[in-house]
Amino acid sequence: xxxxxxxxxxxxxxxxxxxxxxxxxxxxxxxxxxxxxxxxxxxxxxxxxxxxxxxxxxxxxxxxxxxxxxxxxxxxxxxxxxxxxxxxxxxxxxxxxxxxxxxxxxxxxxxxxxxxxxxxxxxxxxxxxxxxxxxxxxxxxxxxxxxxxxxxxxxxxxxxxxxxxxxxxxxxxxxxxxxxxxxxxxxxxxxxxxxxxxxxxxxxxxxxxxxxxxxxxxxxxxxxxxxxxxxxxxxxxxxxxxxxxxxxxxxxxxxxxxxxxxxxxxxxxxxxxxxxxxxxxxxxxxxxxxxxxxxxxxxxxxxxxxxxxxxxxxxxxxxxxxxxxxxxxxxxxxxxxxxxxxxxxxxxxxxxxxxxxxxxxxxxxxxxxxxxxxxxxxxxxxxxxxxxxxxxxxxxxxxxxxxxxxxxxxxxxxxxxxxxxxxxxxxxxxxxxxxxxxxxxxxxxxxxxxxxxxxxxxxxxxxxx
Length: 465
Ligand SMILES: Cc1cc2nc3c(=O)[nH]c(=O)nc-3n(C[C@H](O)[C@H](O)[C@H](O)COP(=O)(O)OP(=O)(O)OC[C@H]3O[C@@H](n4cnc5c(N)ncnc54)[C@H](O)[C@@H]3O)c2cc1C
Known about the structure:
Distance between the termini: 23 Å
Number of strands: 24
Largest sheet: 8 strands, mixed
CATH architecture of the largest domain: Alpha-Beta Complex
Radius of gyration: 22 Å
Shape: globular
Helix content: 25-40%
Strand content: 15-25%
CATH class of the largest domain: Alpha Beta
Bound molecules: flavin-adenine dinucleotide
Strand order of the largest sheet: 3-22-16-19-18-17-6-7
């Protein structure tokens, strides 16, 4: 069959996360000759789910803490990275709907809020001025035009700061003193999909992504970190860390913002100021995911999220409407400073910071979290004894080719900076990846997918004119 687009050179895609896989898929469907270079030993990037492979081989690394003798108990997907589908009609939402994969709407759950050392539902907090100040800020967030931090824009009392941080800032990638209020607001305004928050019920996001892009996954060259890209001549020369060279006519770079900013890939000539300056306007801070199983659900089986923690800014009730057998799992997501503090703990002891936080909020029985947490068992002289809490966690800061969570606008960043970050260089270098999304979904899986569409459209245009 004749190629749909007449282009004799190859196109290289750097990185095999959601953006790289989708970009390669689009270009291959147009008949282009595409190859994908991925630094790590797997495709998927920041989409990574606990899988049966983890149970059979102990894949634990410095970033990935778990014990394959004690896998998570839930009969629902356990996500180590991206987990919530933002928007039923978003790019990710559509992929999942087309595949008819069942989802759970977290809007049907009852959220709980920690404030002043106490826990209550929204109706329980009704009339509390601090609670109302945070919720009012969130309900009018998208109209905020203050190019100051979320903390400064909201101006809530110290009692409400953790609640503000967890609901209005952690969600966008870092703490409220760093994330720009107008930066996030501008992106929320641009979003074209609904505001539903969903989880997948039975299939993991990793399986969904890899099966959707199965044709590309088979072609990805793993364990190939790109060290330099020389685009000074007609043909672009890409060199990996072992000195192996690859040639292409055009390149799509989808590496995380940290990797780009830290200069893991050297460019000849250097990237223009447009792109380099734009990169400095965004942050990408540590990210930590922890999955903790308990012997009973002491926070409420109908709970969706528990907001307002300090070490755990976001607790999600992992089994909500997803389990038939076991609904006693908390999924903790921290970005920025709390993630850094969890990351600094040796080995698996980060779980103690989380258990202590929960103990102070649920103090019965000397601390419900420490009382009910699932523990490892050793048999001494025939007597089984419980030892350490069981935890599965992923420290994205320690993942060598990711080194953080998601990109977010620093104070001073504008929408034009997102556009500049993804601007192609000389019709040769194209940029995709969540940080370069300009449709309001940066920092999400849908943002990564949208960016692939934008970059490939741009690339095809550079060929067809
Ligand atoms: C803890 C956590 C929770 C999240 N929660 C959500 C959520 O609930 N919902 C949501 O929608 N999104 C969420 N996200 C964000 C979402 O996971 C990302 O936005 C998305 O997966 C990013 O895709 P990407 O393709 O842009 O980048 P990545 O998935 O990071 O892919 C980039 C790839 O480039 C590779 N690479 C790096 N350096 C090199 C190099 N030198 N050479 C070759 N390859 C290289 C990396 O190994 C990686 O595979 C979360 C992220 C984290 C970390």
